[in-house]
Amino acid sequence: MSEENTCASGQTENSLENSPEYDPAGSVSQPEGEEEAKKQLSADTYYKYEELHSRPIITAGSDIPENLLHLSHSFGYDSQRRSNLKLLDDRTLLFIAGNLLVLLDVPSGEQRYRRSCSGGGIGAITAHPSRGYFVVAEKGNHPNIIIYEYPTLRPYRVLRGGTERQYSFVDFNRDGTLLASVGAAPDYMLTLWDWMQEEVMLSCKAVSQEVYRVSFSPHDPGLLTTSGSGHIKFWKMASTFTGLKLQGVMGHFGKTVATDIEGYVELPDGKVLSGTEWGNLLLWDGNAIRAEICRKEGRSCHVGTVQPFALEDGQLMTFGSDGVVRGWDFERITAAEGDGGSGRFELEPINEMMVGHDVCLSSVVRSSLPDSFLWFAQDSNGAIWKLDLSFTNTTPDPECLFSFHAGVIQGLDVSKKSHLVATTALDRSVRVFDFLSKQELTTSRFNQGGTALTWAPPSVNQSGALLVTGFEDGVVRILELYNPHRLQAVTGQRPEGDAKLRLRQAFKPHTASVTAVAYERDGEILATGSADCTVFFFAVGESYQPIGFIQVPGPVQSLEWSPRSHVSPSDSRLLVLCQNGHVVEVHSPDPEVHKSHKTFQMSELPRRSFRFTSIKSRIKREEELRRRQAEKDKKRKAREKQQEASEQHDAGQEEEEEDDDEEGDLPPVYIPEAGSPLCCGFYSQPGQFWLSMGGFDSGYLYHCKFSENQDEDPHQRQDEPFDFLLVQNADEDPVCSITFSSSGQLLLCGMHSGAIRVYPLEPGDHRLASMQSYWSLNIHDNHYGHLRHVRCSHDDLFVLTAGDDGNVFSFSLLPPEELQASLQRRRAKVPSPRVGVESESLALDIEDPAAYSIETAKQKLENEQLCREAEVKVAEKQKKLAELQKRFRQVLNDNESLPEHVRLKPEELQLDGHFHEQGEKLKAQQLMEVSRQFAWEQERISIALRKLQNWFKDSLEATVVTVVAIRSDHRVSTYRLASLAEPQSGGGPQSAASQPDGGRDAAADWKKSRAEPPRDSSKAEERDILHPTLARPAKIKLGDRQEERLKKAAEKAELARMKIEKRKQEWAKIYAEKPKEDYEDPQDLQAIREARENIRDFTAVKHQRANTERKREELLALEQNIREKQVEINRRILALRDSKVHLVSRLHAQAQRLQDVQQRLAARLHRPPPSLPTMLPEETPEKRLQCSHATLERYRGLRDRRLKMLREEEDEEGAVSILEQLEIEMKTEEGDKWSHAKSASSLTREEETPDDGAELSELEEELQREEEIRLLHEQNSLLEQMEGLVRQFDTELLKARGQKLRTDYRLKLAALRALTLHQETLVLKQFDRRKKSLLEKLNVCVEEESSITSKLEQCNQQMELRRREMTKLEKREKSLVAAFQASVGENSKFEEILTKVFRKKVKRVKNDQTVNEGEEDDSDEEEDDEWDDDFDSDAEQSGAALNDGVCPPGCEPELFENTLRLRESRLDLEELMLEEKKTIEALKRESDTLIKKEKLVKINRKAAEDDLEIINKETQQKLDELDVVVPLRLHQIEFVANGAMPLDLSEALVLNGSELSRLQDHIQQLQEEKLHEEDLCRQAHQRHAKLIHDRRDMAAKIQELEKQCSELMMTKFGRLVDLESLQTLSGNRRLEELKHEKLLKEDAFAKEIQDWDVKVEEAQQALMEVTQCNTEHLRCMTDILEEKKELELQVSARQKKMGRQQFQDYRRCVDQEESLRLQELVKAQSQRAEALRREIHLLSCQGGHVLPPDQDWLYGHAPLPTPSGNTPSGRR
User: Fold this and answer.
1) Looking at the chain, which terminus has fewer C-beta neighbours within 10 angstroms, N or C?
2) Is the dihedral of CA 488, 493, 498, 500 positive or negative?
């Protein structure tokens, strides 16, 4: 770039943020004067990386430098992150490591870094197709996408506003002009960017699930594809009338199980090939699966997850989590079609490469070199591979370029002697790094994953060569590190690598994973902690010897030995921190004291326990109190200043009281039930320690100490910290690890968010008082990179961190220049090997994870020792018992040899008869045991016997009958019918298990039996309370007019009430008919159900699923059908046999008749007779067993002769030969009889033939010729009849034979179908047991769900009833207040006092039986305090205490008593309302509990249904895999290849022609139906929009009418009233009485006024006379006054100077006072006049009577006083 461009670029960088041409949202804004034209960003516009990247967070005002830590190297690789490997050029790899972007040079291994700009981490990366740019999509609050230029690494573009929290994937299109990004939760936003102009082109929500990948189609730039959790979606950029939009279609899995899709490839023809979780490939055509591709015999393409990644040279390449890369034939994949059953297409790979056995490939990138076959692969097990996928004979083997830890780093520690660091993880490896030379030295792998690691201190090994590593199987291994080059002179072999780890010792102290290991301060004891809640101690030496172990209250989190400054050198203590918040301190065990031969457990080891109790809520409460107090002090000082200026102290006090009342409630004191997890801790002083807690209690460091009382159970303790320290900005980010530098001046904290914090400390600050300012930097991943390991090097020059994201970082505390100057070495020193290490044999390792632990092995040895001792004792007892038995037998023999009268009886030889009884019982028990053992064998033999009997006795139902044709060899035989087996009843899982809907009647039963809602039994009491009967004067009799008016008013109110009730009923009916929000049309539901049943390719019909019972029924029905067909054929053949029997007898009769006819004819005229048929033995097999007495006699004779001839042969064979000989002889006799009869008949004919030589007369000749003609005709007729009958029989037999052949064909098909059904039944039986158990589980879930639903419904209904009761009580309270106000009246002078009496809260005694006494006392005390506060405040405001026991002076006692009674009623109502509130709250809690249970049960039910569905799919898959035989004719085969039918028809599809035609017609019908449904949908949308518009208009109209109604009520009544109550007001008799009384009093007052008028006239006349007299007197007085005036003038002239001033001042004061008084009087009169005008207006609106103005003033007001206050007097 030229200098001018450089200057311009720099100017753009400097002024980019302040330029008016840049919008903060990331797009170019419009300059002034050009509102329509957009200014394009220039190609040489860049950002400054120093202004973009995130920086450390430093406490304001502190002296901590910004560059406190300098990144040195990254030793890790987040290999389990998706797509975390990109290629920038042929030697530079790009990947994410926490908050860093690492650019790795492959040949040299050097790294370059770029920090995250947001500080929240990096979400995804990708490279531009031109390799000139790369993209970094970040994480955080509204993160940005930074596009860097490569290789300058300058920020080129910043894209803003694409997602809310983080990006999950980004990708360029093929030409690199567009960038697609997809966000993670919560918005999952898919955005297309014009990244060169920093503009958003299109944006929409992708799905509501996690999206793994988005990409443009390389073949169609307008197509995109996204995939992720259980979905794949296909997008298209479509042009609409509003512009360019994204249209997405979700892929439907159909019969295939839904799967997470990690990778896919877009094919040129628009199809998409994606992977699955089970290793097969899915071919998508549109949004449906066209085929599932697998290998031969149903094998998966890969083992585990598979991802297709490239299409090259006619092969499509895939890789899988099995570490294999395979190539597939692209042409066969694009043309793949799934079979009709499983939808699978079998295909074998054409190329294959095994990368490694312990390899899990997750992503690959291709080399940037043209025509290169090199690929770089990301291995989730922590490696980066280089692959050559040319698949030739010279292809090199895969090369592992780099190897890292995979997954969470479980342990990290640094050497105390050198710049070495060791790490271990669950990937079963231990690695040692040289962080000075930035390289890995050695790696050792074991059978189990590592979980803890520590480096032995110099007190144990001076060279720093020992490592102690704990593993997840409970094994602890002592590893020795040494430099193998030092052994080259001894061994003569050149070693590989600069370091080597050697196993020195292995032992297994624990049964679970080892979580912590720690050496005692002097290195004499090693302690190991485990998740099995034990801590084991070992004595350190050449070999580690076990001392013992202790049990702790929870899984061990970490171990901390007391430092040297705490206790005496001989007394070391171990602080055990448990994950559940328990802390245990134990004394160091003495190896000589704690020796036990039975167990290693040290139960008597001194210990102290501490169980953390949360105080965070109390801290927050105190902070809130202090904050409020500070605000009050601040406000009070401000008021004091204001009061000093304005001198209004009283007003200030009132404002302060108001401010106090406005304060809200304090935060409640909350202690979590489960307790917060303990993260880390360390000693501060002897017996005191600091803890960092997670969960609710995060945000503070708690200073704790052990209490003196240690007798309490550790699990029941409740210990609280005595001090705490606030950790800034850590409420949701707890401290996971804490470490100190060697000098103790730095405290380093590893945070849960992956950040590192550094606090400068003062020396000796155990209370951490100087822990105020801090330096913080986000280094590991903010979401899952929890920083659990932070260590400082031995010289405090380096800081190393390891997190859960698998990354290991090294930082230096000095700048690189100063660091190089201060270090003397470029490489870390590796310890030299021990002397003689080359000759030592390797230590025995523990490779079996199930090996015994130390304690278990000791216990096993103890048990074996006890068993051996027990065996010795048993042998001794048996020997002694044998000697006693021998002696007893000798005694018996001696007893037998004695004479009988001296011999002892057997009973006398028995010492105790119970022994004999016990022996007999044992013998009986043994006999029963033997019988029980052989019961199964006995039952088996019985069943076998019954089966043999059934097989040979009841197997056949009929024998075979064969009917033979007469003129041909055609024959037809019957079927051999076997007896039908009895149908088996039930037994399947569907019949055995009840239906899932069985337990749902509980709700209905409960609805029928539930109690009626509680009725209000206090209505009469309420009426008495609301309308009390006050003492009234005597009743006044109303007139007829008033009575009629009251009656009409009551009728009118009743009609209005009925009308309102009717209207309410109509509204209730309308609301009852209103459908619910989730209402669905039954017709629509039925249509959907039918569609689901018909669309079999996508939805399996549940009620048509195959089961064993249905298959058995189908098999029995098929067998029954087969039997019916066979019986029908047998019946026809037997009928044909019967017809042949009848035909043979008839033919014999006709033959006899023919013989008679031929006897009468001349021999020359004889026609040869036909051969007569006979019944063959196979045609009448039942006659074989029918024998006469002669036959039996012949059989006896033959048998006797046969026995004489065949003495040596078996009897059975002889019997068989005799039967055959008997049959032969009987046939021979029958033939002889027939031939003899035939010869006899011929002889008879010869004898009866007349002599030809005799002469006959003409008449005789004529008669002879006539007879001859008749006989010839009869002969011919007989022959024709015989031939016709035979021919007819043969025809019938041929028809029967043809029908039987057709039936044989059908029966063969049925037999094949039966074979298939039998195979299906066997398959179904294999799944019956699992299905039955799942059905039972599902039924249990359904019953439990029904029970919970009924309880929840009951609870909700009770809560609704309680709420209604609460509403009623509130209405009663309002009515009570209204009754009180009505009783007091308006403008009453006692209104304020009576209101205070009515509102006063009085403490009342409650019944102890209703509520708990303790709760009642507490609630009463709280209520009393509140009431007392209210009362005090009221008393202060009123200025005097209120005595509610005395009626105020002037007030009516009845009114006061009524007020007290109303107050009691109000208190009763408040108590009832309080009880109802408590009941409602209890029901609400119960409802919430039931809702949670219901959710859990629904989840279980859903899981059971899913499992059942999986089994059904497996069953269906097995059924689909069965082979079905379909016989075809040649004309039905249309599968032709190259003009001929191929020999292999396995690729052919068998389909019914009519079904194919029906499907084609159905396609047309579906298209028409789709158009029709679209029209209906469009009409429904229009109707829905119209209804919404109508509803909006109706709502506006209702609102307008309500406003008009309110205005009319304000105009009419002056306030808003209840119209229903107003309409239902009946006539008030009391009002009518008062009106009548008013009229009577008005009449009386009018008469009295007339009397007074007469008296006034008389007084005025008298006054006139007196006035005339006084006038004369006044005239005289006037003259005197004139004289007096002259004298006064003279006197005043003299005194003028003296009194003028005084008089003027006095006059002025008098005038001012008089003016003020007159002004107040005018103001009062104007207010009174205004009030009277309003009252007149209201009375005129209500139809009241208004007095004239003069009368109003007469009755309502006193005469106005004169200005002087005196009556005027005349002048004298």
Assistant:
1) N
2) negative
Q: Give the pLDDT score at 1262.
A: 85
Instruction: State the pLDDT at residue 323.
Output: 93
E-strand stretches of 321-394: 324-329, 344-346, 351-354, 361-366, 374-379, 383-388
For 93, residues 6+ apart whose C-beta sits below 8 A from its C-beta are: 85, 86, 87, 103, 104, 106, 376, 384
**Within 10 A of 935 (CB to CB), how many other CB atoms are there?**
10
Q: How many residues does the chain have?
A: 1772
Pair of tokens at residue 416: 């105390």
Query: SS3 string of 1106-1140?
Result: CCHHHHHHHHHHHHHHHHHHHHHHHHHHHHHHHHH
In contact, 1362 and 1424? CB cutoff 8 Å: no
Q: Cβ(184)–Cβ(204) under 8 Å?
A: no
Tokens of 816: 């690189």
User: Which of 999, 997, 1010 shows the shortest CA–CA distance to 1354?
Assistant: 1010
CA gap 431, 499 in Å, rounded: 11
CB 386 within 8 A of CB 401: yes
C-alpha 136, offset from chain centre = 33
- Contact assessment for residue 97 and residue 106, using Cβ atoms and an 8 Å cutoff: no
**φ and ψ of 699, to 5 deg:** 105, -5
Any idea what DSSP says for residue 1386? Answer: T
Q: What is the pTM of this model?
A: 0.55
Q: 1079, exposed or middle or buried, with CB in 10 Å at 0-12, 13-18, 19+? A: exposed
How open is the CA angle 1543-1546-1551, to the nearest 5 degrees? 110
What φ, ψ does residue 6 adopt, rounded to 5°? -60, -45
Q: Find, among 280, 288, 330, the residue nearest to 310 by Cα.
A: 330
Long-range contacts of the stretch 1400-1406 (C-beta < 8 A, 24+) = 1400/1427, 1400/1431, 1400/1434, 1400/1442, 1400/1444, 1400/1463, 1401/1426, 1401/1427, 1401/1430, 1401/1431, 1401/1467, 1402/1427, 1402/1444, 1402/1463, 1402/1467, 1403/1427, 1404/1467, 1404/1471, 1406/1471
Residue 1699, phi then psi, degrees to nearest 5: -105, 5
pLDDT score at 1511: 86
CB atoms within 10 A of CB 417: 18
Of 854, 263, 1007, 306, give the one whose Cα is nearest residue 546. Answer: 854
- What is the rounded distance in angstroms from the CA atom of residue 827 to the CA atom of residue 485? 15
User: Using alpha carbons only, what angle is made at residue 675 by residues 672 and 679, rounded to the nearest 5 degrees?
Assistant: 130
Q: How far apart are CA 168 and CA 364, in angstroms?
A: 17
What crossing angle do the helices spanning 1040-1073 and 1629-1742 adopt, rounded to 10°? Answer: 70
Q: How far apart are CA 413 and CA 809, in angstroms?
A: 13
Strands lying side by side in the sheet with 700-705: 678-685, 688-693, 700-705, 723-726
- Residues 6 or more apart in contact with residue 166 via CB below 8 angstroms: 120, 121, 123, 138, 139, 140, 143, 183, 184, 783
Residue whose tokens read 């998740």 = 531
Helix then strand count (H, E) for the chain reads: 26, 60
pLDDT recorded at residue 1095: 60
Characterize the bridge pairing of strands 288-294 and 344-346. parallel
Sign of CA dihedral 1239, 1240, 1243, 1249: negative
SS3 952: helix
Answer positive or negative: Cα dihedral of 813, 815, 818, 823: positive
In angstroms, how far is the first alpha carbon of the chain from the final one?
122
Residues (pLDDT < 50) of the chain are: 1-38, 649, 651-662, 955, 985-1034, 1096-1101, 1103, 1210-1216, 1243-1253, 1408-1440, 1742-1772
Q: What beta strand segments (E) does 1217-1283 contain?
A: none
CA distance 458 to 455: 9
Burial of residue 978 (number of CB atoms within 10 Å: 0-12, 13-18, 19+):
middle
Residue carrying the six token digits 């003279």: 1690
CA 954, chain centre distance (Å): 59
